[in-house]
Amino acid sequence: MSNNTVVLRLARSDDLAQLSKIEQTCFSNDRLSKRSLKHWLSAKHALFLVATSSDAIVGYGLVWCLKGTRLARLYSLAVLPAYRGQGIAQVLLSELEQLTQSKGRAYLRLEVSALNHAAISLYKSLGYQVFGAYSDYYGDGSEALRMQKRVARYDGKGIRLQVPWYKQTTEFTCGPAALLMAMYSLDTKVALKQVDELAIWREATTIFMTSGHGGCHPVGLALSAIKRGFTAQVFLTQLSALFLDGVRSEEKKQVMCTVHDEFITQAHKLGCVLYEKPLELDQLYKLLKAGGRVLMLISTYRLDGKKAPHWVCVTAIDEHCVYVHDPDLDASQQAIDCQHVPIGLMEFSKMATFGKNRLRAAIAIEKLP
């Protein structure tokens, strides 16, 4: 694609020197290093476009497509000063949006300095909307606005909930973190603090898993919600002991079975409703529409290649996607990458199945009147 004498093409490895020069010219803070640019040139989930004039690179745009989701992030956009005002940034961004959509992504997100009024004006003119901010985000201490645009060509209609995002503080407390988000969105008296996160983990843990600390049992998490003034329903494809496949030690399995049996006993005593069936998407929609909050167990395989059980909090659903808050923020991500993450309905159904037994688990909670 071209804009007068400017031509767009995919970036190549031999563009590295020119890209590094553009980075040095266009940015005074938060520059991408030459090593980082080299990484993005070969990254599997990157969309890297350059704008050329007379074979010289005059600008570039870089998008990162988050694995396993319908979300992409504009990582960087730059045009040399001498070529600004010619619409090159708009053409780059429009082409990136089309490529993003072709990769099955529904949303393109970005961060921009609150002081960069020209860039903000550009993004707004192209349909991007502000949906949050980061304070003290850049090296100069300036605030970053969070903006996004739905690049898929459909208007999603569904249920969207106001749910805060909370980052798990340990590698084994995704369940408590997801539950805290859900409870806080129904009752702001709930504290989003590590002490409460760990307290819930102590109450709901399976004790053992494949290695390291045990994760949280769905019934255990539901009981924690009930103890804090909520009602809870649990949807499970099996009511026998969970997560035993990855544990070799018979002694550990025996402990996990004992924990499971006690959770089931307490569920009957405390009025936790147990369904020996999966939570289907149509029922998920109805629960959210009725004002409930839902936690779902997913396999992280399609996110990070690891087959680990992981709890997320559902924040919305429409005719195309389920949206989740993922409490697990790794070193390569920004918080924005884990919030209201859109996952295609078919993809989500696959992600919400774990292990050889194809376990499916979900917890629905409501605040007691």
TrEMBL record:
Keywords for this protein: Acyltransferase, Transferase
SUPFAM superfamilies (UniProt xref): Acyl-CoA N-acyltransferases (Nat)
Keyword Transferase: yes
Listed InterPro entries: Acyl_CoA_acyltransferase, DUF3335, GNAT_dom, YpeA/RimI_acetyltransf
Domain N-acetyltransferase: 6-152
CDD domains for the chain: NAT_SF (cd04301)
Gene Ontology MF terms in the entry: acyltransferase activity, transferring groups other than amino-acyl groups
Transcription regulation listed as a keyword: no
PANTHER family on file: ACETYLTRANSFERASE (PTHR43420), N-ACETYLTRANSFERASE DOMAIN-CONTAINING PROTEIN (PTHR43420:SF12)
Protein name: GNAT family N-acetyltransferase
